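Report of the visiting student (M.T.), summer placement. My assignment was to run the structure pipeline on a short list of targets and document each run. The first record concerns Dockerin.
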Amino acid sequence: MNRNHNVIIPALLAALLAGCSGGSTTPGATGTTPVLAATTGSATSFASVKWGGGGYVTGLIYHPTTANVLYARTDIGGAYRWNATTSSWTPITDGLGFGGGESRFHGAESIALDPNNDQLVYMVTGMYTFEGNGRIYMSNDRGTTWTHYDLPFPVGGNNPARAIGERLSVDPNNPSTLFYGSRTAGLWKSTDAGHTWAQVTSLATLQLTNDQVNTMGGWVAGVEWVMFDTSTKGTGTPTSTLYAAIAKDYADAAGLASTLYKSVDAGATWTPVTVPSTVSGYYIPHAVRAADGTFYVAFSAGAGPGVAGPGYLYKFSGGTWSLLANNASAGYGGVSVYGTGSTARIALGVSNTWGSGQVVQLSVDGGNTWREIEQGMPHTPAGGAGGWVDDIEIDPSNPDHISHVTGGGVVETRNASAGTPTWSDAVNNLEETATNAIVTPPAGAAYKFVDSAGDIGTWLQTDLAVRPTKGPSNTWSNGIAADVLWSDPTFIVGSGVLNSSSTAFGFWSGDGGNMWSNFAKLPTGASTNKAGTASIVATSRSNIVWAPANSVPSYSTNNGSRWTATNLPALASLGWDRGYRLVADRKNANKVYAYDSGGAFWGTAGKVYVSTNGGHTFTLSQGSVSANLAPNAYWITSMAVNPNVEGDLWLADGNAVYHSTDSGATWTRLNGFASVAATGSTAQLQGASAIALGKAQAGSPYSAAIYVVGTMNGVWGVYHSDDGGATWARFNDDTHQYGGIGALAADWNTYGRIYFSGTGRGIVYTN
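After the run finished, the structure tokens were exported:
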């Protein structure tokens, strides 16, 4: 189960450092005009490296009348549209509106569809409520292109209770009217298709501040969903009757009398609905309205992810509540209905179950009797961890097709009526892993790269189209960092954290990833400093230098049986994680470089240290001091070495690119890259946040192609140079932005191929 918490925080904190606020236009150009022209050969294709799922899909949204129009929203990886022809998912949040400075809008909190127009999609996004106000995106072509507007309230697509909903609802009779149930600011209404919003003060006027939310435990669920009580559409008259569910946290703070409210005048006034006493104060994660006006309402004691029990399912009709099912030890995450009355088919997602597979209950007689249709049934691939069945949907065009979300993607059956339904993962091209680091080996190695990723761990990718199988651990863990020995890429080292026990570990392989061993011991700091601001390098077989987060790096000469601290200075605390970034010179095993980025923009200037004895002792590069490197967070800085030339270093300090040809003794700042200040809801566009070197273009004057994630002339993207940085060209385009780019590596077998991580979008590669 991939919760994706640990891996998204660095990008979030970097965004906060950059300065997030409200507005929606891309900033204008600043900085030195770069030279662009001589370099050619931008990427011609972008494709996802195969993993399959890997993250929390928080909601599935079907169009009610058009077959096979289905969307999936995720907590950190944007949104997807189902392609029935190819049985795969199409990512729809990779382009404009989801670039550098916009990573937090890959947290999709709610999606709503217009039942009158199957091309129209609305999506509300924002990663965490404390970051500031969210955005609403709208598309008239099923998510191929988007426009967006800033919202006047915070959004928390990766906050707890993120599968609750849908919070956004379109009036079927008057589709320009939208309602939104916010977490911290009550109920909101738009009468112009989401362009402008006003709080529905007749329900509540309370708008919680971050300080108030913190005193309430750090998050609130707020208004959980809004539902129109109608089976009509397109009349032009606003629907008069609608319901809103309110979590107890906000209801208590706002002085509301119930967790369910009803309006009979299109939202002008509201009256409390008394819920059964057994579920007083419970969350109401999902409800569904049948065509005959009957509501099926799920109540659970927990908010999710992994909605905790007890759980209750009630039928609500004519003002009367009827209990249909309950579970003392698990929650009811989702409910879906097909048909009406005594023959209604009801699917019930039973959440927060562990160890014996996912649990789905099905009734075909309106809830009178139930049978289990997933736990213990055949599943491809085999297994099923249980847990996060927090939304479930019956296909409106095929009642035998039932899908539900999990912490690792989407699971479905297409023969729900069978005595033994068969289930399979529906995750083809849905890639929501969150990579911390990527390292590529020299040309000719038996693998493409090593991926260190949150929650799924560390893996060697041998085939870009096949899920990897070689890694140090197949248990739930965070991969933090890795390195390969350039002179012998069968030697691989890395570090990670076992999530179940929060135990740090380091590991190595001497045969290209077939067999792995854990380091016998950990260096000082590694067991307690487990953040992603860490790096590790191999200088020769058995010789390793490891820089845990917030710690002085240590070296080992015997594959981690013993560690000795280097002489690098201790890092001053800045209130959050920082660390040394290490790179090994690929031509001289004695040379190792350590980069202290300063930790934050309020930290000290960046510095580079150089070792000439395999990383045992280091000397400060006075040239790096003279270069006046900008202080910045670890996550928006980078250093890379040209493996073809000794002492040839490249550095991105968050603002600019620097080059050294003398092992870091002196540094030259390149013109062109420059940060652009935050504007509106777009955070600062970093001038240069990641750098990687790969195979050179044939005939190039420089021995490596250089790739930089950064900003030139106010335009953020990936830039590349074939002539040692003399000229640059943009490598990506506006349709391939992925909510920003974090980890970056380049291939040494194929010119023009890079590997990079989007925000919760797995790893993408180019040709």
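The radius of gyration is 27 Å. The helical segments are 5-18, 210-215, 248-254, 622-626. I thank the supervising group for their guidance throughout the placement.
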